[in-house]
Amino acid sequence: PALSRGGIAPARARRRSGKPPRTSHLDWTNNFSLTHGNLFYNPFHGLSIATLYGSALLFAMHGATILAVSRFGGERELEQIADRGTAAERAALFWRWTMGRFP
Hints:
The chain contains six helices and no strands. It is mainly α. It is elongated, with a radius of gyration of 26 Å.
C-alpha cells in the first residue's frame, strides 16, 4: 500500500503519459496500405516475403550442417575442401543428396 501511494504509481503514470499509443504502428500500416495499395494482393510483396523466408531457411540449414559435422572438424571447411573423407566432403554429400544433384 505504501509503495502504490508514494513511489511506484506516480512514476508509472508519468511514464505512461509520455509513451505513444500501442496502435501507432497499425496507423502507419494502414496509411501505407492506402497510399501504395493493399500489399496482400501485390505479387511482388509475396515474392519478397517468400525470398526472405527462403534465404533465412537456407542460412539456418547451412549452420545446422556445419554444426552436424563439427565433430569431424567441419568448422575448418576451407582447409578440408580438397581432401577426401573429411567433414567438408560429408557435408557436400549430404547437400547433394538433399537437393537431388548426383554426380
